[in-house]
Design a protein that fits this description.
It is built from 9 helices and 4 strands, in the order H-E-E-E-H-E-H-H-H-H-H-H-H. The protein has 3 domains: about 60 residues, DNA Methylphosphotriester Repair Domain (3-Layer(aba) Sandwich); about 55 residues; about 55 residues, Arc Repressor Mutant, subunit A (Orthogonal Bundle), CATH 1.10.10.60. A 4-stranded mixed beta sheet has the order 3-1-2-4.
Length: about 190
């Protein structure tokens, strides 16, 4: 059970639904469920709470995760899957609609989740990822510009040049001239 926080602090965090204490402790209800402090479900009388340091500790005591917390956990997993898919280039292959369909959701739902997590649309996020990759490849490799364009998901060199120039106010060729060198080393 949790010992580093006083009962008053834990009760206050649960009552205020304070997200700062999520994954710091969990509380169990007389209903047989346990929750994170920010859980939106109705809370019972405070004398019914038990506190645990970890979710597994609560589960070992026979409590199960409440439905609201389980939904939020699944939502976080889904948003991670979405962002990983965008990073992997799923939108390049199938477009936003095709990517949404592959996740069994609507385009609107996909846009809403990505907007909520990143502040950008899926297409903007994908474009940023592609341009960042292009900039790196131009600066630190000798790959032909055409190969870079196709490798990062553009369907034509003309499209790549236009988007690149709009984003960076310079052509890929000019950027390569000004930024060629060896890649930055990772610090150990």
């Amino acid at each position: 059970m949790v010992t580093s926080l006083s009962d008053a602090e834990r009760y206050r965090a649960v009552h205020e639904r304070n997200k700062e204490f999520d994954n710091v402790f969990y509380f169990a209800k007389a209903t047989g469920t346990y929750c994170r402090p920010s859980c939106p479900a109705p809370h019972p009388v405070i004398t019914k709470y038990l506190f645990f340091s970890t979710a597994s500790e609560a589960a070992l005591e026979g409590y199960h995760l409440c439905g609201r917390c389980r939904f939020n956990e699944a939502k976080n997993t889904l948003s991670t899957t979405i962002l990983d898919g965008i990073s992997a280039g799923a939108i390049n292959d199938h477009g936003v609609g095709g990517f949404a369909h592959s996740l069994h959701m609507s385009e609107r739902q996909l846009r809403r989740i990505v907007q909520q997590k990143t502040g950008s649309s899926p297409a903007q996020l994908n474009q940023e990822r592609r341009l960042s990759s292009a900039k790196y490849l131009l600066a630190y490799t000798q790959l032909p510009i055409t190969e870079i364009a196709f490798r990062i998901g553009f369907s034509s060199l003309r499209q790549f040049n236009t988007v690149f120039k709009d984003a960076f106010n310079t052509s890929p060729r000019e950027m390569r001239k000004h930024h060629s060198g060896s890649p930055p080393l990772l610090s150990e």
